[in-house]
Write a structure and sequence with these properties.
By secondary structure, the chain is of the alpha/beta class. It has a domain of 168 residues: 3-Layer(aba) Sandwich (Rossmann fold). Helices cover 35% and strands 12% of the residues.
């Protein structure tokens, strides 16, 4: 059992709170407001509602699952003085339409920017999976067709912890390399929200083309936002697969 703090109760954060508490971990979850405002649905499997400060105290793992632009608003000393053994995971993704232009992001991977903003090394994980997939498509280890999630970062031991938690949520892992290589799992790449097995994901990470990412990412977002009705889960996965495979013209 690990003590896990989750900051953010959006689609991914709340699903991780439910799954990791059900797996037997001591989970504390915090939103942007008071603990009392966290839905009882998020706490249904045993997670405890706390403040942001409490979610970061005396933990083995801290999972940050907040909008990309919100990282700069976290308290400057929230994570900087944590013991080195504490694993900090970043599940976020950058979308210019939502997050705007951010000074300091140019030329860096998203998680390198997050790491510098927090003053703390992070592991990039759980960013390339849709809420529905995370909630409903987990399988037992070894089961045919198990979806894989990449884990990127510079600390091998921290990556092992992340891989363990990924496995406990029902997914395989693939080593995504160093944090500087984590662009290979960002929005607009073949690895992003395409529901791939481990072998397929390894190939997708290798096939990623850095120069194509912004155009593909923005094309996909434009297609989703301009739809008369919001696309289904299956339609979003198909769109990501098609566009990121090089079918964008």
């Amino acid at each position: 059992m690990m003590k896990i703090g989750i900051i953010g109760v959006g689609h991914i954060g709340k699903t991780l709170a439910l799954k990791l508490a059900k797996a037997g971990h001591d989970v504390a979850v915090a939103g942007s407001g008071e603990p009392e405002k966290i839905s009882t649905e998020v706490l249904a499997t045993g997670a405890q509602a706390v403040t942001v400060q409490q979610a970061a105290q005396n933990k083995d793992v801290i999972i940050l699952s907040i909008p990309f632009k919100a990282y700069k608003d976290l308290s400057e000393n929230l994570l900087q003085e944590l013991p080195e053994h504490v694993v900090v995971m970043d599940t976020s993704n950058y979308y210019p339409l939502r997050d705007g232009e951010l000074a300091g992001l140019q030329g860096k991977t998203e998680s390198e920017y997050i790491s510098e903003t927090l003053g703390r090394p992070v592991i990039k994980v759980f960013n390339n999976i849709l809420e529905y997939s995370l909630k409903h498509k987990g399988k037992a280890a070894g089961e045919h067709g198990r979806i894989a999630i990449p884990v990127a970062g510079d600390n091998k031991e921290h990556k092992k912890v992340a891989a363990l938690l990924v496995d406990q949520t029902g997914f395989d892992t693939v080593d995504g390399g160093s944090l500087s290589e984590s662009w290979r799992q960002q929005p607009g790449t073949p690895a992003y929200c395409t529901e791939l097995t481990a072998e397929e994901l390894k190939q997708a990470l290798a096939d990623a083309r850095k120069e194509k990412i912004p155009a593909v990412r923005d094309y996909i977002m434009d297609r989703i936002m301009s739809s008369e009705t919001f696309p289904s889960h299956e339609e979003i996965v198909a769109l990501n697969r098609s566009a990121s495979a090089g079918n964008l013209r």
